[in-house]
What does this fold into?
Amino acid sequence: MSAPFHRPGTRSLDRTEIALGDPEFVGRLLQRACDEIYEVGHAVMTSRDGLVVASDTASAGVDGGDSVAMRGSAMAAAAIGIGDHFTGLLHQGRLQSTVFEADRGCVGVFPVSSTLLLVVTSTPGVNLGRFNAAAKRVLGMLLAPTY
It folds into this structure.
């Protein structure tokens, strides 16, 4: 997957392009995010049409059947579509995220590119402020990975 504004010799764009174009590598980054960031329960990269691109191990499920990744990716596509439409109708600019806060944690959907979304869930009891900070760390890991 090619970065839209790629300039040869620009290291940060090269690294982003490699990371987002390699589902296995993205899966390892998502797993690392779940392992290293206490507030993150699940992390899934999905297409805007709801197809799973990569996920952490627990989200993928044992047999690849009905899993957090599969259910979450379809719901994320719907949520981001509604969010895009809602912010557009209210003239609030380009959507940056859609975040849901529940009584046991949070779920966020973050556009990574024009075709990719990041879905992050929190561990139980994490409040919205801590969740937003944790989700931004996951985004940072994806956009500027360390090898």
Remarks:
- The chain has five helices and five strands.
- The radius of gyration is 15 Å.
- The longest strand covers residues 40-47.
- The mean pLDDT is 83.
